[in-house]
């Protein structure tokens, strides 16, 4: 009973708090590093290297049980490349914004992601709103 409570309720909450805390810490580190003269592209490169070094051993500790589709299909490979490029460009834009403002503002803006997702879901009719509540 206690183990199921931990996996269902405590573990997701801990993961979310850890992710947000890490994001805030990286924003503060970026502001300090760039204020002392470090180039933002070098910082992004270092952050990708550290992320790869942290995530690579985890792939050997927790292997996948499902088969992975091969990357020989150009369509799948191009989609993965495009998603990675969008993430990279978003990170560059975010760090450029932190260079002009403060890490506090960047952390507050990152918390608006779910609100923007909700608004886009309503606009593209993925989510329908009803004016009369069901009781």
Automatic annotation (TrEMBL):
Record's protein name: WAT1-related protein
GO MF terms held by the record: transmembrane transporter activity
KW Lyase (keyword) present: no
A Pfam short name: EamA
Keyword Glycoprotein assigned: no
Family: Belongs to the drug/metabolite transporter (DMT) superfamily. Plant drug/metabolite exporter (P-DME) (TC 2.A.7.4) family.
GO cellular component, as recorded: membrane
Native source species: Gossypium anomalum
Protein's membrane topology: Multi-pass membrane protein
Domain EamA, residue spans: 24-124
Keywords: Membrane, Transmembrane, Transmembrane helix
Subcellular locations according to the entry: Membrane
InterPro entries cross-referenced by the UniProt entry: EamA_dom, EmrE-like, WAT1-related
Transmembrane portions of the chain: 12-30, 42-61, 73-92, 112-129
């Amino acid at each position: 009973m206690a183990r199921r409570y931990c996996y269902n309720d405590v573990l997701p909450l801990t993961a979310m708090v850890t992710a947000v805390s890490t994001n805030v810490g990286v924003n503060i580190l970026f502001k300090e590093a760039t204020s002392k003269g470090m180039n933002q592209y070098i910082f992004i490169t270092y952050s990708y290297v550290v992320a790869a070094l942290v995530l690579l051993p985890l792939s050997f500790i927790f292997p996948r049980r499902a088969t992975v589709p091969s990357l020989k299909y150009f369509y799948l490979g191009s989609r993965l490349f495009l998603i990675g490029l969008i993430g990279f460009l978003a990170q560059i834009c975010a760090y450029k914004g932190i260079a002009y403002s403060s890490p506090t503002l960047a952390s507050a803006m990152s918390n608006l992601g779910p609100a923007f997702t909700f608004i886009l879901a309503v606009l593209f009719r993925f989510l329908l709103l009803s004016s009369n509540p069901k009781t």
